[in-house]
Write a structure and sequence with these properties.
Keywords: Cytoplasm, DNA-binding, NAD, Repressor, Transcription, Transcription regulation. This protein has 222 residues and is α/β, with parallel strands linked by helices. It has 8 helices and 9 strands. The longest helix is centred in the C-terminal third of the chain and has 27 residues. It is globular.
Length: 222
């Protein structure tokens, strides 16, 4: 893959879906699949699938389709899932605890190493064998353990300073749930997760369907 070539965000966002669907095919002992069959399962056109995969070399054979295991492994490599990332969670409230208890991160190569908070009631608590530490210990922990990624589940008022400190200490990526868009050094990859945005998009789509149905009923009643 040409690492200097700029791939559109829309294509990158579809890659995890391809990976997930291909994993399900493997679980069902399906060894090969055409772009048409894959499109029917995913709700993406066959042409779109071919265009997306051609950004990374194609992977298909005319008259054969795609070797499912090979394509699954190659997309995993493109997504960097053959690497291992050590991560910490900063902010161990309800969301932080839920993330800490989600064991499937390890299957994707993300290994939980530390938990940090400022709340005295949470410090000393253990989740999956990992003790919650005071945030004052975070700098030495990140540097000594060569932590790659931090999940941020902090209040809006706290997140920017913590993110800047983590970037300064050598963190490579931040998964930010704090409802603040972070703008840091280009050396740090930031993925902002706005749960309320996703909820509003769902609300928009429900409302759109409702309005469409109402419009159709009005037509019928004329």
């Amino acid at each position: 893959m040409d690492t200097d070539r700029r791939i559109s965000i829309a294509v990158v966002k579809r890659l995890p879906r391809y990976y997930r669907y291909l994993g399900e095919l493997l679980e069902n002992d399906i060894t090969r699949i055409s772009s048409k069959e894959l499109s029917e399962r995913m709700g993406v056109t066959a042409s779109q699938i071919r265009q997306d995969l051609n950004n990374f070399g194609g992977f298909g054979q005319q008259g054969y389709g795609y070797n499912v295991e090979y394509l699954y492994n190659e997309i995993g490599k493109i997504l960097g899932l053959n690497n291992t990332y050590k991560f910490i969670i900063v902010g161990v409230g309800n969301l932080g605890q839920a993330l800490a208890n989600y064991t499937k991160f390890e299957k994707r190569g993300f290994i939980l190493k530390g938990l940090f908070d400022v709340n005295p009631r949470l410090i000393g608590m253990t989740i999956r064998g990992i003790e919650v530490r005071d945030i004052d210990e975070m700098e030495s922990f990140v540097k000594e353990n060569k932590i790659d990624v931090a999940f941020l589940t902090l209040p809006k008022s706290k997140v920017r300073k913590v993110a800047e400190d983590l970037a300064k200490w050598g963190i490579k990526g931040l998964w930010n749930f704090s409802a603040v868009d972070l703008d840091l050094s280009p050396d740090v990859v930031v993925e902002d997760v706005h749960l309320s945005d996703s909820l509003m998009i769902m609300s928009y789509n429900i409302n759109r369907k409702k309005l469409k149905k109402e419009a159709e009923m009005k037509k019928q009643n004329k």
